[in-house]
């Protein structure tokens, strides 16, 4: 059940209205059942895998609170091992197997893991990370262990953010399931507007850009350099609108019911540096790695080489989190490398960046440079094989002028560019779709609905981040 | 007030879900909407099925809502055959389920490719049994084989033989079956399209849909991805019949191996049904409209012709291609994937000629 489907529209209407009709005491149960129904729409069997990690982490939380010292560490290790084990089993097994086979063949032998036929459960990386953040926070004493099994299950399974985040922290979300949320018109209006904006980003912008990006990337040998450059830029905005659109619907849907989820994006393509980009892009994941991995490794309070190593480790792990494939590892490593190079330059020329960034033109130059680096890195994210990546960059930089015609006609390319500029302008001016009064809300909501209908590309295309 | 609004929304959305999730509910709403010709009636198939997919205003046609008229005086004709048809919408959208259309036929049974498996029970009669297996070109590569034919129409009701499976495989199969069972019980397989029908398939919304479709076509040069406008702009075709990469296309390269295999399948199907109670088996392969109308300025793959002319093909075949090509423009709707009544009559004449020559 994807957010851009009629099934979700009806599901959301039923669950939200039932939520406000029910006595507050039973609302968590409604949300839990609804979340099960929502998740089982993909593959019902997935619920068993989710149930396994929920049971482990629920009891781990209670025992973590009960014990101290070595036993406490042991329970944390067991909980983390169970979560990472599930991830490794379902997401990384084939990847590990492929690499063992390759490595053994280089050594003149053949070793292979037993063949297992498994499908990656939808959103596994997201809810596993959310579950891990719970046990870590209980271990650190920042969060009390949740005794109500149903509420804990709901924390992991809350349907708006179950399959693609935002990856919540227990301190932010758990207590909200105990609060009584009454119908608040202002909150409902702003939630609905954010949902509509998310759908707009997905079906009007992301799915339109995909009409050019997908065929271009699928027929790399026959493309011109210009077509590849355009596809690369379009892909940057496609993935942004796709993922941030999903986050907007998730946050908006939760807000209508009175829940506040953390923000996941903040105009990332206006970042003036790579570190700033990562403070604006997929914020819930970036902060997860910062809180639980980077700081645990010592962060920047270590020697310079160790600091750089910490950065590389975090970004390589972030790449692996996205997918069990070398292209994601390289994508993560590239981002790490860009940051290390940036930090090294700053060390050699201290104060240069601060001096230059005082100039408006320099700020825009930094933004442009950051966008170009991010866009080039996305190529590794989009293309799975090195031969394709090599072909892409060879063609891109060789100035090849002849190739297949673009998959979109000129007016639609102009429309797409116009939509991208409108989005950028909107974000640059930091406009927020939030009005307390009814008429502005109705006008904005109606305009969005009309634009979604007339400009939307309705193909029920899955969200890109569902695969993670 | 707020609770009242919540209650109204709950009842509204729940009703929509209940109707869209139930066969009875969908039957009720479909019948009701197609019975009306006003703003509240359904417009999906009324003006051509491809119009209903694309909503391009130029292709909104007044489609003949009648079926082919029954021949009048039929009681003097010798009727010494019972006819069983395994066919698709080319037949059931043009003919009533009535034996009077067909030469020498006394009783008629109709089975659809789109249905799930049914076991044939022969009528108790002394008449000979003839089976017609009809299929449109775009589906023939997938459907015309014995396994698929038996999936829809089987004459043997024997239990399947136990297969030697490992315990692990049995467990996996059981889990898969359980999973599929749960999914079927909880989510209607066509829920999304049912919801689309219930919420938006209303005559008065047609105008809005046309505006969007016209804007997308005339400005952005795109249509619904399932359809394509012909080069001369006069016809709508199913995209899968034009796209040379797709199996059902009339422009896909069809090699000797493909034709040999199809001929083998046809003969296998014939042997199976002849040895299981039928006296005659007749095949009919209906060409895609684009292959007959030839509006694309390029030669089609002549797949049906290659099959019919194959030296090893020894089955009875009704190929209406040549007849349909005469005044071809008159035999098809401009925005429907099927023939019109004239086209259907041409096929019927060809089929009746084959029937009349049976022993």
Automatic annotation (TrEMBL), chain A:
> What keywords sit in the KW lines?
Acyltransferase, Cell membrane, Membrane, Transferase, Transmembrane, Transmembrane helix
PANTHER family for the chain: ACYLTRANSFERASE, PROTEIN-CYSTEINE N-PALMITOYLTRANSFERASE RASP
Classification lineage? Bacteria, Pseudomonadati, Bacteroidota, Cytophagia, Cytophagales
For this UniProt entry, what is the primary localization, expressed as one broad class?
A: membrane
Q: Which InterPro entries match?
A: Ac/AlaTfrase_AlgI/DltB, AlgI, MB_O-acyltransferase, MBOAT_fam
Q: What top-level branch of life does the organism fall under?
A: Bacteria
Q: What name has this protein been given in UniProt? A: MBOAT family protein
Query: Pfam families attached here?
Result: MBOAT
Keyword Acyltransferase applies: yes
Residue intervals passing through the bilayer: 6-22, 29-54, 74-93, 307-324, 330-352, 364-383, 403-426, 438-460
In its keyword annotation, does this UniProt entry include Translocase? Answer: no
Protein family (similarity comment) = Belongs to the membrane-bound acyltransferase family.
Membrane topology designation:
Multi-pass membrane protein
Compartments where found: Cell membrane
Automatic annotation (TrEMBL), chain B:
Superkingdom as given in the UniProt entry = Bacteria
Protein name from the UniProt record: AlgX/AlgJ SGNH hydrolase-like domain-containing protein
Provenance organism: Aquirufa beregesia
């Amino acid at each position: 059940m994807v957010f851009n489907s009629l099934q979700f529209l009806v599901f959301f209407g039923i669950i939200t209205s039932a939520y406000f009709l029910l006595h507050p005491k039973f609302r968590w149960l409604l949300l839990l059942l609804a979340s099960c129904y929502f998740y089982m729409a993909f593959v019902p069997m997935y619920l068993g895998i989710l149930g396994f990690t929920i049971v482990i982490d629920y009891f781990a939380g209670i025992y973590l609170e009960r014990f101290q010292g070595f036993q406490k560490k042991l329970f944390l290790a067991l909980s983390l091992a169970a979560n990472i084990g599930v991830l490794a089993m379902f997401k990384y097994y084939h990847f590990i197997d492929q690499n063992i086979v390759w490595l053994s063949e280089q050594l003149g032998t053949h070793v292979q893991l037993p063949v297992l036929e498994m499908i990656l459960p939808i959103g596994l990386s997201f809810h596993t990370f959310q579950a891990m953040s719970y046990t870590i926070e209980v271990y650190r004493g920042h969060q009390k262990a949740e005794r109500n099994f149903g509420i804990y299950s709901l924390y992991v399974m809350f349907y708006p953010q179950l399959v693609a985040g935002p990856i919540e922290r227990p301190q932010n979300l758990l207590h909200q399931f105990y609060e009584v949320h009454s119908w608040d018109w202002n909150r409902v209006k702003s939630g609905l507007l954010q949902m509509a904006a998310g759908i707009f980003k997905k079906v009007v912008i992301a799915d339109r850009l995909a009409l050019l990006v997908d065929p271009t990337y699928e027929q790399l040998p026959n493309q011109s350099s210009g077509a590849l450059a355009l596809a690369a830029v379009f892909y940057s905005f496609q993935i942004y609108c796709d993922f941030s659109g999903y986050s907007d619907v998730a946050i908006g849907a939760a807000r209508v019911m009175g829940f506040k989820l953390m923000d996941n994006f903040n105009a990332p393509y206006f970042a003036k540096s790579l570190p700033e980009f990562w403070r604006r892009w997929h914020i819930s994941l970036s902060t997860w790695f910062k809180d639980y991995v980077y700081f645990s490794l010592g962060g920047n309070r270590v020697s310079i080489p160790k600091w750089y190593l910490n950065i590389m480790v975090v970004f390589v792990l972030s790449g692996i989190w996205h997918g069990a494939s070398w292209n994601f590892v390289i994508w993560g490593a590239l981002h790490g490398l860009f940051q290390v190079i940036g930090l090294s330059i700053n060390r050699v020329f201290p104060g240069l960046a601060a001096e230059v960034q005082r100039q408006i033109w320099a700020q825009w130059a930094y933004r442009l440079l950051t966008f170009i680096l991010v866009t080039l890195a996305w190529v590794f994210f989009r293309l799975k094989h090195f031969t394709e990546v090599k072909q892409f960059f060879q063609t891109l930089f060789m100035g090849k002028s002849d190739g297949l015609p673009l998959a979109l006609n000129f007016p639609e390319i102009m429309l797409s560019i116009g939509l991208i500029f409108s989005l950028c302008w909107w974000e640059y001016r930091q406009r927020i779709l939030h009005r307390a009064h009814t008429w502005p809300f109705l006008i904005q909501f109606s305009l969005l609905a009309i634009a979604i209908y007339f400009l939307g590309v309705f193909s029920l295309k899955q969200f890109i981040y569902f695969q993670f | 007030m707020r609770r009242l609004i919540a209650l109204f929304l709950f009842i509204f959305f729940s009703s929509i879900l209940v109707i869209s999730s139930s066969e009875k509910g969908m039957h009720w709403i479909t019948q009701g909407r197609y019975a009306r010709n006003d703003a509240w009636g359904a417009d999906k198939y009324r003006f051509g099925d491809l119009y209903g997919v694309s909503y391009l205003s130029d292709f909104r046609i007044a489609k003949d809502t009648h079926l082919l008229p029954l021949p009048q005086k039929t009681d003097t004709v010798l009727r010494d055959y019972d006819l069983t048809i395994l066919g698709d919408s080319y037949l059931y959208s043009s003919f009533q389920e009535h034996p009077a259309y067909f030469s020498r036929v006394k009783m008629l049974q109709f089975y659809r490719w789109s249905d799930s498996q049914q076991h044939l029970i022969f009528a108790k009669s002394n008449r000979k049994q003839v089976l017609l297996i009809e299929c449109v070109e775009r589906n023939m590569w997938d459907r015309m084989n014995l396994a698929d034919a038996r999936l829809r129409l089987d004459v043997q009701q024997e239990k399947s033989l136990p297969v030697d499976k490992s315990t692990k495989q049995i467990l996996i199969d059981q889990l898969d079956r359980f999973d599929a069972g749960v999914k079927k019980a909880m989510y209607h397989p066509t829920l999304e399209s049912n919801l689309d029908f219930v919420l938006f398939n209303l005559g008065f919304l047609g105008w809005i849909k046309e505006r969007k479709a016209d804007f997308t076509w005339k400005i952005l040069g795109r249509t619904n991805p399932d359809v394509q406008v012909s080069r001369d702009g006069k016809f709508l075709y199913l995209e899968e019949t034009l796209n040379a990469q797709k199996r059902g296309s009339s422009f896909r390269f069809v090699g000797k191996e493909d034709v040999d295999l199809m001929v083998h399948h046809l003969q296998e199907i014939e042997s199976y049904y002849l040895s299981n109670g039928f006296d005659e088996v007749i095949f009919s392969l209906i060409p895609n409209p684009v292959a007959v109308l030839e509006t694309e300025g390029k030669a089609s793959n002549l797949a049906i012709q290659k099959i019919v002319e194959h030296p090893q093909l020894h089955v009875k075949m009704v190929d209406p291609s040549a007849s349909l090509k005469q005044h071809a423009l008159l035999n098809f709707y401009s925005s429907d994937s099927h023939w019109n009544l004239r086209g259907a009559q041409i096929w019927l004449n060809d089929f009746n000629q084959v029937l009349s020559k049976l022993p």
